[in-house]
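User: Sequence recovery, please. Input:
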């Protein structure tokens, strides 16, 4: 008995934390309130008011608002008003495992009391609620969680001790550690390998090496070295062995799609993945002008028109303004999307000029490839079959939004996601919390996906200088 008591006393007590969630957290991840384990979660009444005003708008985030409201209702539906104010357990783990509680805080009652910030703005009401709880419950650590940088600054300035960003879905701590899809060795690759077995079948040679010699590698990762001759790709992992397909730089640089040839080794790797029918998901990252859109579109035309692998090309793009403005513009859906898809049509014009045998108009190519311009909302609730889907500007989507889109891809569909993490337009996303960063890390061990960071600007010397110096 005394021994058990002694062991029990050595376990440090868990510090109880009360998290106050801002509206943008539930829009970023509708189930975020379930991510705080044994700690308490507070949703101010103002947050519910904001979710209610957003759920019926013609915005892409409207769905996330409705999902968040339904998820909250699922937890609180059987609770009395008194229990909702006091806190409802988030899970039924029993006494063995302490669980946090979810409560609603009526911040409108603070109108009758002294408050630090003006009560006219929603952000201020949420901050005042956090300050009030901090004052009333001094023994508990009170944390305001928001993705709004300015709100974090205001809360700190108003006297709130703890303010944080939502980092539950953040998979890397520094963007420089984000998977690039390839690893470049210094010197000669074969000098790094102690033992190797090779097998040749037709044109393909596969090398089998010890996994311990390449400990941080993953499936479909490309391998390069400084000799400018070796290029390989990890195509299998089994019994502590890595299977490396020997590609060779010349073979990669010889790839072609719709008359487009790679201008550097990174584009060569991208085309290799884009033209591989075994790759269901190809993720292209890199700066503006590196060729992401052009390569994706060229490979799509090649596989639909020339090879007949897919039936159509669906092109969509994420921009913050689309969901708000598209419903009010005149014309068809494709005509409404035109202003935001000019990058695609620009690339189509380039590809049209590349094809010497195509004497018809640009519209002829679009009809022959069955190219369809769709809004992001088109992907929701659909099952896309036997198509190539080009999803541009992915850096502006959350992980939850990208998950919704990816799960729409049915049998025989290839999804190409591209984006530039240095050009995020969303108010609440950073390079670390972008959905593009999330899927790069989540899918790096999936056999049917490949990621390529297109290093280097090839658009023009002006674009290259701007990317490096501005």
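Assistant: Recovered sequence (470 residues):
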């Amino acid at each position: 008995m005394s021994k058990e008591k002694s062991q029990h006393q050595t376990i440090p007590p868990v510090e109880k934390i009360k998290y106050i969630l801002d509206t943008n957290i539930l829009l970023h991840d509708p189930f975020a309130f379930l991510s705080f384990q044994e700690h308490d979660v507070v949703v101010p009444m103002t947050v519910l008011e904001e979710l209610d005003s957003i759920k019926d708008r013609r915005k892409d985030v409207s769905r996330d608002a409705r999902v968040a409201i339904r998820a909250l209702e699922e937890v609180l539906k059987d609770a009395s008003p008194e229990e909702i104010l006091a806190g409802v357990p988030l899970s039924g783990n029993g006494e063995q495992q302490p669980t946090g509680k979810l409560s609603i805080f009526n911040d409108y009652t603070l109108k009758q009391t002294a408050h630090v910030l003006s009560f006219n703005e929603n952000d201020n009401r949420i901050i005042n609620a956090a300050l009030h709880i901090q004052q009333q419950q001094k023994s508990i650590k009170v944390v305001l969680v928001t993705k709004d940088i300015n709100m974090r600054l205001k809360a700190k300035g108003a006297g709130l001790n703890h303010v944080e960003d939502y980092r539950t879905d953040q998979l890397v701590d520094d963007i420089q550690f984000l998977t690039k899809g390839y690893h470049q060795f210094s010197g000669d690759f074969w000098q790094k390998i102690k033992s190797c077995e090779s097998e040749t079948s037709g044109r393909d040679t596969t090398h089998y090496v010890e996994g311990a010699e390449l400990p941080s590698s993953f499936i479909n990762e490309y391998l390069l070295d400084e000799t400018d001759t070796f290029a390989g790709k990890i195509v299998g992992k089994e019994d502590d062995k890595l299977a490396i397909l020997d590609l060779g730089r010349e073979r990669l640089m010889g790839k072609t799609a719709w008359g487009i040839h790679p201008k550097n080794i990174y584009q060569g790797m991208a085309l290799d993945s884009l033209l591989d029918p075994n790759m269901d998901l190809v993720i292209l990252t890199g700066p503006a002008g590196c060729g992401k859109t052009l390569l994706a579109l060229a490979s799509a035309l090649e596989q639909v028109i020339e090879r007949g692998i897919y039936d159509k090309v669906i092109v969509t793009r994420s921009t913050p303004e689309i969901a708000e403005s598209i419903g009010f513009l005149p014309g068809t859906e494709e005509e409404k999307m035109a202003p935001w898809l000019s990058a695609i049509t620009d690339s189509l014009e380039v590809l049209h000029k590349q094809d010497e045998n195509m004497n018809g108009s640009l519209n002829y190519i679009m009809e022959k490839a069955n190219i369809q311009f769709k809004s992001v909302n088109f992907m929701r609730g659909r099952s896309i079959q036997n198509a190539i889907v080009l999803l541009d500007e992915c850096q502006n989507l959350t992980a939850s939004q990208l998950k919704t889109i990816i799960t729409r891809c049915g049998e025989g569909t290839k999804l190409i996601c591209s984006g530039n993490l240095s050009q995020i337009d969303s108010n609440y996303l950073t390079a670390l919390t972008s959905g593009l960063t999330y899927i790069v890390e989540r899918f790096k061990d999936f056999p049917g996906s490949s990621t390529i960071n297109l290093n280097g600007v090839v658009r023009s010397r002006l674009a290259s200088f701007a990317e490096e110096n501005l």
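The domain at 14-164 is CATH 3.40.50.1010 (Rossmann fold).
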